């Protein structure tokens, strides 16, 4: 079984263990609470887009104290976009839609939608009861993210849970989004690992002894693609331009493998003049 480790030095997180965004920026909105799902203290419902105070006419609470209470509340939801990020640059999302080791007041498992991009500039979480889990709910939630945070719907959505492929694929296709099954949702996996320690385990409905949240699937063996057969080998040298062309085909998913041209973008000026040996 594969194991993920979270290195806090690589992703900037606040000193307090909470679900606050890893970025230096603050929340664009306050987190939302879901008092109907959890057997915990009741908070008034907050909205994603507009910065709402609790009750501007009735209750007077220092804003700093309110923010601290929200950050400490594991039942709160998150809707965040880094203020320094160009919304149009967020073209790929990493998404997880699955049950959590948390029970609601009915004794049923809570589901959660977690969405981010590779840089964690976009972060979104929302809880759902188990009786509304379908492609329509997910489709509506993705549209809500786009509308509330002012970002366009992504070109691609990466997800790693094969058991959710049907729902995610249907929702994405109805929105004109390309669904990409991938185990390389690295930012999402690290964030989920952090949330398990700082959010789920502190939740009043947390179930001790639950199955691992990030247990990887063990699919049946499949036949190796023909273009990966090692029929013969040779030591050759290729111009960098030829290597880049091969990598581009991987990035466009036209052949097996995974890579991104962004990795070698800083070497553009070398194309055609450098040879790679191997």
Provide the domain count.
Answer: 2
- Based on secondary structure, the structural category is alpha/beta
If you average the pLDDT, what whole number results?
74
Major beta-sheet overview: 6 strands, mixed
Short description:
This protein has about 280 residues and is α/β, with parallel strands linked by helices.
Structure, described:
This protein is an alpha/beta fold and 278 residues long. It folds into 2 domains: 1-217, ATPase, nucleotide binding domain (Nucleotidyltransferase, domain 5, 2-Layer Sandwich), CATH 3.30.420; 233-277, no CATH class. It has 5 helices and 8 strands; from the N terminus they run αββββαβαβαβαβ. The chain has helices at residues 63-72, 135-149, 165-174, 186-198, 240-251, and strands at residues 78-81, 92-103, 109-116, 122-128, 156-159, 178-181, 237-239, 275-277. The strands form 2 sheets. Strands 1-4-3-2-5-6 form a 6-stranded mixed β-sheet, with helices on both faces. A two-stranded antiparallel ribbon has the order 7-8. The longest helix has 15 residues, at 135-149. The two termini are 32 Å apart. Mean pLDDT is 74; it is low at 4-20, 22-36, 39-62 and 254-264.
Topology diagram in text:
Layout: H1 63-72, E1 78-81, E2 92-103, E3 109-116, E4 122-128, H2 135-149, E5 156-159, H3 165-174, E6 178-181, H4 186-198, E7 237-239, H5 240-251, E8 275-277
Helix pairs in contact: 2-3
Fill in the keyword field for this structure:
about 280 residues, 8 strands, single chain, 2 domains, about 20% helix, Nucleotidyltransferase, domain 5
